């Protein structure tokens, strides 16, 4: 399997009045055309890792790495113009909640069309046609109607599907999904995951799936990276997650309720200082 993304010793620092906060501390992994899950609690550095790959960290942040390559392109040393060209066309990111990601004063269809025409020289009619096809591909039943709706007029699940359509319209090779189902109910979650699964398989994309839900990641991804305090503490095949060895991963697994098991009181995570070192 060819390597699509190579991350080596990635660090993300935020200078503050009281000192520097290191949100990501020496993260290293590679990604082929597969589904890689990144899990961990809030503040573990999952989202900042994804944003650093996309080039979406705030201007005051300090992003360094021995290597941050996408398909042979050095992401740390490309020009701002090249970054903008890559972002959306070859690398895309689905954010957590469509309410905060979609422009409230533009219709859903217009936003998808704008995304496509930013990256490809196509006519407005062709862009509209492809946007409707993409809305249909993410299982929106009446794409013509949804095309003309504004974000506040669609449900959370439909808004997330529209976000996925927008991110995939230009045919990226790498998709970063940052907790794309956390704001959705369980049945819609499964539908959105099914859409992502099919699109990744059909298009041969690489997928980084960021989540705090171990059960979801273990059933959806090929490999899993577990992060704590900005570091990777364990990397394991998703199918083997139940046999994880690191005490943090074991603690996360033990904290999950199990139907039919007598777990009173529910186990809690016993943190160890050496995990943060």
Automatic annotation (TrEMBL):
Cited PROSITE patterns: ABC_TRANSPORTER_2
Keywords: ATP-binding, Cell membrane, Membrane, Nucleotide-binding, Transport
Subcellular locations according to the entry: Cell inner membrane
Ranges for domain ABC transporter: 5-254
GO-annotated cellular components: plasma membrane
GO molecular function, one term: ATP binding
GO BP term, example: transmembrane transport
Pfam families linked to this entry: ABC_tran (PF00005)
CDD domains assigned: ABC_NikE_OppD_transporters
Matches recorded under SUPFAM superfamilies: P-loop containing nucleoside triphosphate hydrolases
Topology with respect to the bilayer: Peripheral membrane protein
PANTHER family registered for this protein in UniProt: DIPEPTIDE TRANSPORT ATP-BINDING PROTEIN DPPD, OLIGOPEPTIDE TRANSPORT ATP-BINDING PROTEIN APPD
Family listed: Belongs to the ABC transporter superfamily.
Protein name, per record: ABC transporter ATP-binding protein
Organism: Phyllobacterium salinisoli
